[in-house]
Design goal:
By secondary structure, this protein is mainly α. The protein has one domain. Helices cover 48% and strands 0% of the residues. The chain is built from eight helices and no strands. Helix 2 (23-32) crosses helix 8 and helix 6 (95-108) packs antiparallel against helix 7 (111-121). The protein is globular.
Length: 145
């Protein structure tokens, strides 16, 4: 992991990719700024093996302040295990508890990152130019076919 990745939120890294013209530069940015949260969002969005134990569609949440969110996706991504179908951590929770945890996560992180994880559970990347093919090029080992 590049040391610079620690300073950037997931949405900021994806903005850098979106604002870059060349495909090779996009791949380079993903590799240079990679962190576990970014990889988890990309895997959760594009890997067909991962299925979410949450209802699809929009999430009725109150976005937090963009200036000072209480936490970040860089810290909260470790809680994804509570939302993946088939994982013990997820299956042991009641539906209501699991959905409340997801809602709390959305309300505690930057609104742009919340949009990313809502897109993730819907298997749709909300950021233009970030495709499965691009992710597979940057991280060949990340996704299952």
């Amino acid at each position: 992991m590049a040391l610079t990745a620690i300073r950037y939120q997931v949405y900021e890294i994806l903005d850098k990719v979106t604002n870059t013209k060349s495909r090779q530069d996009k791949v380079s940015i993903l590799k240079e700024y990679q962190n576990n949260a970014l990889k988890d969002v990309l895997r959760g969005t594009f890997d067909n093996v991962i299925q979410w134990n949450l209802p699809a569609g929009s999430v009725p949440y109150n976005p937090t302040s963009e200036e000072s969110p209480p936490t970040s996706l860089l810290k909260q991504h470790m809680n994804f295990k509570y939302f993946v179908k088939g994982l013990l951590a997820s299956e042991q929770l009641t539906k209501v508890r699991r959905e409340k945890m997801f809602l709390d996560m959305c309300e505690s992180i930057h609104p742009r990152d919340a949009d990313l994880i809502i897109g993730m559970i819907n298997k749709k990347m909300p950021v233009k130019g970030i495709t499965k093919k691009l992710v597979m090029e940057a991280f060949p080992e990340l996704l299952h076919e």
